[in-house]
Amino acid sequence: MKIRIQHRTTYHYATPVRLGTHRVMVRPREGHDLHIESSILTIRPAYTTHWMRDVNGNSIALVDFTEKASELMIYSELVLQHYDSDPLDFRVEPYAVHYPFVYDPWTLPELTAFTHIVFPADAERVREWLGQFWEPGKLVETVSLLKRLNRFIHETFAYTRRHEYGVQRPARTLDKNSGSCRDFATLFIEACRSWGLAARFVSGYMLCEATEAGHASTHAWAEVYLPGAGWKGFDPTSGRMTGSQHVAVAVSRHPEAAAPISGSFIGVPTAFLRIEVDVKLEQLDKPYSSPQQPTLFPAQDRDQTQALPRLQESVKAEGQGNSSPLPDLVRQSQSIGTDDSGIVTQKQSS
Fold first, then answer.
1. Nearest of 281, 293, 284 to residue 208 by alpha carbon
2. Strand order of the sheet with strand 219-226?
3. Which of 37-41, 241-245, 342-346 has the largest mean confidence?
4. What is the pLDDT of residues 294-334, one digit of tens each?
5. In terms of pLDDT, which residue wins out, 38 or 287?
6. Beta strands in the chain (DSSP E)
7. What does the pLDDT look like over 99-157, one tens digit per residue?
């Protein structure tokens, strides 16, 4: 499947502010199942960029700005080929076909961090809730257990778009019986870890009717490590295992460490006005012919565009010289969650 992804984020400020370093995670994770054919990254105002891979192998652009601005715009456009058309085409090692099982001694040290509960205060509440799916002493097929949990969240919880930054605690999601995609992914992950399974948080994009229409947002789901199959994706928001319609960008042990964009600015606390996020996905190789949709960012406006680097490259785009810090101002942090376009919560930090 050939997919074009357009992702534009714009911050608006009442007065020009000095922008701190921003971490931008918009480059999908390439592998045997996904290949990026072309990519561009456009940013305003003037900036310099350094690329790195973090401990999870996520590709991160560290962006430093060289001038003050009353608007920050980050635009990413990619064309990629996704080959994972059958998410159920995998094999599990014989010892892990049925749950419970224990990871082999060679794999377990690498997975230990992904088995640790992130919300220990909610662990007992989650374990009680999981009693309906599995009871100690019983043997159940591992994949069937995970698929059942995935479908149950989709079918019995109400999806809500939350505008607050961060994720809901699992206990709160259970009490409210509702949440956003990142909340459902967090609940699913904590449930798997309660069973001793390695699970991680994933942020990225999903090709569906809403994202094809534009004015959409990013998505979040979970991955579980299955011996013999590797990391397999489960999307409790849709109730499906992930395939070619899901494009992973970042993975993390902690649900709050995979935001597409995070950073700060120096200015008065009331300087921030609003944020606008627009995500659009388009399948370019549909069996029927259809005209290519207009871009979210016209070509004539791409005055500061660079290609996203390949895995082995380090790209640096030079801007103007740095200015001295502003005195007597506070630094504000800003982040974008994984499914909440249009609003950002700011929190003051030291």
1. 281
2. 240-241, 230-235, 219-226, 199-206, 246-252
3. 37-41
4. 555 544 454 444 544 443 332 222 233 333 332 334 456 66
5. 38
6. 2-19, 22-24, 34-44, 47-53, 59-65, 69-82, 98-99, 140-141, 158-159, 178-179, 199-206, 219-226, 230-235, 240-241, 246-252, 261-267, 272-283, 305-306, 330-336, 347-348
7. 999 999 999 999 999 999 999 999 999 999 999 999 999 999 999 999 999 999 999 99
User: Mean pLDDT over residues 195-214, rounded?
Assistant: 89
Q: Is the confidence at residue 344, as pLDDT, over 80?
A: no
DSSP string, 63-130: EEESS-EEEEEEEEEEEEEE----TT-----GGGSEES----TTTHHHHGGGGS-S-GGGHHHHHHHH
- Backbone phi and psi for residue 113, each to the nearest 5 degrees, phi listed first: -60, -30
Q: What is the DSSP letter of 216?
A: B
* Separation CA 112–CA 132 (nearest Å): 26
Percent of the chain with pLDDT over 90: 71
Q: Residues 339, 220: contact at Cβ < 8 Å?
A: yes
User: How far is Cα 65 from Cα 47, in angstroms, rounded to an integer?
Assistant: 4
3-state secondary structure of 180: coil
Residue 294 has which token pair? Answer: 């207009």
The CA distance from 346 to 350, in Å, is 13
Torsion of CA 44, 62, 316, 45, to 10 degrees: 10
- Over its C-alpha atoms, the chain yields an Rg (Å, rounded) of 21
Share of the chain above pLDDT 70, in %: 81
pTM, whole model, 2 decimals?
Answer: 0.83
The residues with which 251 forms a beta bridge, in sequence order, are 202
- Backbone φ and ψ for 308, nearest 5 degrees, come out as -65, 140
